[in-house]
Amino acid sequence: MTEKNLSIEQRVFGFIRKNRLVSRGDCLLLAVSGGPDSVCLLNIMLSLREKLSISLHIAHLDHQLRGEESEADAAYVSELAKRFDIPLTVSKADVNSYRNQNRLSLEEAAREMRYNFLVETAAAIGAADVAIGHTLDDQVETIMLHIIRGSGIHGLVGLNPKTNRLLNGHQVNIIRPLLEISRTETQQYCLENNLAARYDSTNLSLAPLRNRIRHKLLPEIKKYNPGFVESLLRTSAIAADEIAFLDSELEKVWESVVKEQNDSVILDKDEFDALPNALKRHLLRATIKNLLGTLKDIEERHVEEIIGVSIKQAGKYINLPYGLIFAVEYGRYLLGSDTTVLCPFPEIAGESAVNIPGETFISGWRIEASVSENVSSFEPENEFTAYLDIDKCGDNLAVRSRLEGDRFQPLGFGTPKRLNRFMIDLKIPQDWRKRVPLVCCDEQVVWVAGYRIDDRYKVTADTKRVLKIEFRRV
Questions:
Q1: Cis previous bond, 226, omega within 30
Q2: 352-473: CATH homologous superfamily?
Q3: pLDDT confidence of residue 377
Q4: Does the pTM exceed 0.85?
Q5: What is the CATH number of domain 3-135+156-208?
Q6: What residue spans of 20-94 are helical by DSSP H?
Q7: Does domain 252-342 have CATH number 3.30.465.60?
Q8: From CA 384, how far away is CA 129, in angstroms rounded?
Q9: For the chain, how far is it from start to end, CA to CA, in angstroms?
Q10: Burial 197-208 (b: 16+ CB within 10 A, else e)
């Protein structure tokens, strides 16, 4: 029998078996909003209950966003539970308050509260799985959302048939049995089975991006390619296969590249640099997910920024969502939120004179200084090399950490500014600022090593002698 000739129940049963969504004896928590998708899911799982040897429990959350309409949804779900003799858990959520407290969009706040409620309910009743009524249309819209937001190849996979969710030590499987059933089919199924499903009026609003994709973007794209949905889903399947391959390759190199340390990750620089770019991206996403527990708000541009800064000199870093920092160290890369651990600069004790010319060893640094009368080329090779006009700064230089009230005139600026403000403007983490080496003449900062020289000591066409200073980690 071909797929087209199978009933919805048969197709869903086949999908559940193929993806091993439930096990015999499971208690399955059904998320039922009252809409056509979730009501269709409820009725199908009822018809498959004995065949799958599972028990059912319904959960419904009133988001309190649509007044009487929300209350009517809850009443309808309660009626379904009573009619089918299925245990029911109903709760209310103050989504607006949660949204304001956590600075989320309305959709994000509602989704978080809904999933938290479902996981908590599953834990309370001993359910291993939570079934969500996501359909093929939801899959397509999710992939489009990911593309628009720039989530890369991983975003093409969209919704998985089964994912894990952890909350307060409780872990459950989120399963999506209807992922190959269209929204039109769920609506038709409800009509044919006399299920007077509810309709959420907010689904017609064009304010949420998902609704604009549903009502505006997809219909327009289909004018150019009527088979767009099928093409997108084929691309999604290919992306899933390629990610599975990358997963297998990542297992082979993980231990040689990654070292986990408390809430941070250390990446071996040579091993990481030798990886193909595709595997670098995959490894970075995996390490970020391990640290955060999620990849929400981690876009492909963030991964590309990390790869871009990885070729820079030691001391470079970038800020990422959730307070994460990626820092370039000597021989390694650091990723985490503990800025003290991630700091590429050793602590500086006191003030040390710089031997000019010659070498100076201080606090994990070797400082090389030389003087030249050749001023034809004075472009720094890296951030820890500086060229200064020695007749302006003199040869009585010292290295120290910052002091209260330090000021200097950054290269390219017409007036001095407070050093602290300069560091804040560059987004240098607060814990790093006291470790940044400062090269000074008397009390005047002439170079913030790794960042900028003072404009007043730069080499110009009138310079007679050039002082080269280079910091190297030891």
A1: no
A2: Phenylalanyl-trna Synthetase, Chain B, domain 3 (3.50.40.10)
A3: 65
A4: no
A5: 3.40.50.620
A6: 36-52, 68-84
A7: yes
A8: 55
A9: 71
A10: bbebeeeeeeee
